[in-house]
């Protein structure tokens, strides 16, 4: 390629980019740590398309996946200060900012993913939104991050008795360690990247995660028994900087909010499809899925965990309201 041709191509690209930028009166930057194509990323992209269409191209949202703008904790702080306009992050990362989000990491809090959606789309989700607003974050939509379940290399886990004495990798999190203690198993915190070899060599018996992670990590190759107990479902949040939100007209705020909530419907659908595809893949590879279990004994065993972490009347009331949601 000649220098002249290359220069011409670069000039053309610059003109196209410039024209595109001129069409957008306001361009918002949105961060996600997940890779391109992941349900949460595709959800925000769909939101961006709807916003651009309904504002006749005035407002554009540029999505930066794969932690291009930083890890979740850093990008949340940048969003609070208006350096970044939007962020998608797990509730777990908001624990130090909005303390009530800690309660959503309690084991067996949600009966199912449908139960979680009803809680987050109802009055409880609205109240949490007010708590986020006090921290300069506007809660736009609650996404689904899947349900974590146990898998191991030794035997099918069909009851709480089957867990006794088994060694499971968990995240370095006190709630997780206490959960395993309450179930009669041994918690072994370790980096995620070490889990495969640790199961393979017998250092641990298993771990816990959702179907897509169980599949993509290769853990299904060394831990063939997957028990669908769904002990943890942590919501995810798409939030906007209050500084950015306040710059929008009431009409544009309504467009952004509606588009975000519509995107949550899509994201949940994409997540369910990804879970189903991963389940089919691991089953085809020989994994045994244990789905027909009585979860009540697992739930009952969490009493000391809840006693330890749900200590105020306000927290106790919130947990009860979540459980009472039909």
Can you summarize this structure?
The chain has 326 residues and is of the alpha/beta class. 48% of the residues lie in helices and 18% in strands. Helix 6 links the parallel strand 6 (167-170) and strand 7 (186-189).
Defining traits:
single chain, 326 residues, alpha/beta, D-Maltodextrin-Binding Protein, domain 2, five-stranded mixed β-sheet, 48% helix, 18% strand, globular, disordered N terminus, DctP_fam, TRAP_DctP_sf, TRAP_DctP, signal, TRAP transporter substrate-binding protein
Description:
This is TRAP transporter substrate-binding protein. This protein is of the alpha/beta class. 48% of the residues lie in helices and 18% in strands. The chain contains 14 helices and 11 strands. It has helices at 3-23, 39-54, 72-80, 113-120, 123-133, 174-182, 195-200, 211-216, 219-222, 242-247, 250-284, 296-300, 303-309, 313-324; strands at residues 26-31, 59-64, 86-90, 137-143, 147-152, 167-170, 186-189, 206-209, 225-233, 236-241, 288-290. It starts with a helix and ends with a helix. The relative contact order is 0.16.
